[in-house]
Design a protein that fits this description.
This protein is an alpha/beta fold. It has three helices and eight strands. It has a six-stranded mixed sheet with strand order 4-3-2-5-6-7, with helices on both faces. Strands 1-8 form a two-stranded parallel sheet. Strand 5, helix 3 and strand 6 form a beta-alpha-beta unit. The longest helix is centred in the N-terminal third of the chain and has 18 residues. The two termini are 25 Å apart. Keywords: Glycosyltransferase, Transferase. This is Phosphoribosyltransferase domain-containing protein.
Length: 169
């Protein structure tokens, strides 16, 4: 695993800035005329933005899909993989779907989800807080483009409990 870059080489998204970013991102979706029937958040990083966008867009159908790709700072699996419980693709049949993630870094997670939705949805759009230049997917809605490492407020601090549920000292 590579060490994290120094602070000055990072995008730092605070909770306050996140609130503005989510609202501005939702506004770009609304301004485009796209009205999602379903907001599909990619777990884990896309869950918080997906909930925020669903509220801002007045969409009550919020689904999740779990994909694992990153295993640490700049460390990832060879390919992204879906994790259970699995979403039934038929639940998306003929829906307008907004797929939301926190960042399109390589874009391969979004690509996997787009392939999963293909042949089921009526229309699909993507929305991310950040998009990086190397992404294989060009997202439909982006709050900010950057090539820097991103500190998200929900994942910068270490977990307060280990996997067994015991609080760390």
């Amino acid at each position: 695993m590579s060490p994290a870059p120094p602070e000055q080489e990072r995008e730092v998204l605070t909770w306050d800035l996140y609130g503005r970013a989510a609202r501005e991102l939702a506004q770009t979706v609304a301004d485009s005329g796209f009205v999602p029937d379903v907001v599909l958040g990619i777990a884990r990083g896309g869950l918080i933005p997906a909930g925020s966008l669903a509220y801002a867009l007045g969409c009550k159908n919020l689904f999740t899909i779990s994909v694992e790709f990153y295993t640490g700072v700049d460390s990832r699996l060879d390919v992204p993989v879906m994790l259970p419980p699995f979403l039934n693709a038929h639940d998306l049949d003929e829906a307008s779907v907004l797929v939301v993630d926190d960042v399109a870094d390589t874009g391969r997670t979004l690509e996997l989800v787009a392939d999963f939705c293909s042949g089921h949805v009526r229309e699909m759009r993507t929305a991310v807080l950040y998009e990086k230049p190397q992404s294989v997917i060009t997202c439909d809605h982006v709050w900010k483009r950057t090539s820097r490492w991103i500190n998200f407020p929900w994942s910068t601090e270490p977990p307060v409990a280990n996997r067994s549920g015991v609080l760390d000292a």
